[in-house]
Amino acid sequence: MSYHYPIDDTWTKEEVIQVVQFFSLIEQAYEKKVEKDILLTAYRGFKQVVPSKSEEKKLFATFKQGSGYSSFHVIKQAKETEERFIMMDKTKGKKLK
Hints:
By secondary structure, the chain is mostly helical. 60% of the residues lie in helices and 4% in strands.
């Protein structure tokens, strides 16, 4: 599926690409699985574009509203797990066992 990604009109083309890649990986964590290290690298790139925690929360909420996917839960899981891959449960927003 394809979702509308929250984009700021003031971002450069490269910044838009970084943000879209990050949200695409969040999507992938729910629809398939995503490699933890790739996800965390993309999150660091996202944070370079969006360093403000309040702006991050706003973008995460916008994406969740459109997709139903929680970026926060995916990143939290990636930071806490020892496993190589992250795979979330679409119905509960939790990691699949």
